[in-house]
Amino acid sequence: MAQQHGDAPNPAVPSSALGPEQVKLLLAASKEAKRFAYCPYSNYPVGAALLTSDGKIFSGCNIENACYPLGVCAERTAIQKAVSEGHTKFRAIAIICNSQETFAVPCGACRQVLREFGKHWEIFLAKADGTHIQKTLEDLLPFPFGPEDLKMV
């Protein structure tokens, strides 16, 4: 997550990586959020926990709908909750599912929503038992389109 040479400082870049206790807390919050998933169609519960730049955690779960396109993912639920309470700067997100074979990963729409709020995130992808890997948004969404791409020259 090092700043590239010549880049202007970005206030959305965390000043330091999360410590092990912060990661553990974020993963636990995502696991708790997963308990509330409403997924009668896919039976694929997902939980997410979002850490704001000022240390608050917002959690979210997936919420399905009989009209499938109207469902919302856990990641977007957490982000919408945070933004609706005035938070738009984030440090990290943890995402967990019930699979023990694969890590929970955000869908393309969620990756783009994450990108809306910055390029530099710590993203923790977890399996059901809590084992996890850490990725960057650039790992998940190379060559992203973001707000700065809409600025007029």
Can you describe what's shown?
The protein is an alpha+beta fold. The protein is built from four helices and five strands. It has helices at residues 20-34, 74-84, 108-116, 137-140, and strands at residues 46-52, 57-61, 90-97, 122-126, 132-135. The longest helix is centred in the N-terminal third of the chain and has 15 residues, at 20-34. The chain is globular. Residues 1-15 have low confidence and may be disordered.
What topology does this entry show?
Layout: H1 20-34, E1 46-52, E2 57-61, H2 74-84, E3 90-97, H3 108-116, E4 122-126, E5 132-135, H4 137-140
Weakly predicted, low-confidence segments: 1-15
Reported for the largest beta sheet, the result is: 5 strands, mixed
Give the SSE order as H and E letters. HEEHEHEEH
Distance between the termini: 28 Å
What is the rounded Rg?
A: 15 Å
**Count of helices?**
4
Average pLDDT works out at 90
Number of strands: 5
User: Helix- and strand-based class?
Assistant: alpha+beta
Shape assignment: globular
Order of strands across the main sheet: 2-1-3-4-5
Question: Percent of residues in helical segments?
Answer: 25-40%
Strand content: 15-25%
Features:
alpha+beta; single chain; globular; 5 strands; 4 helices; disordered N terminus; about 150 residues; 5-stranded mixed beta sheet
Summarize the structure in short.
With 153 residues, this protein is α+β, with helices and mostly antiparallel strands.
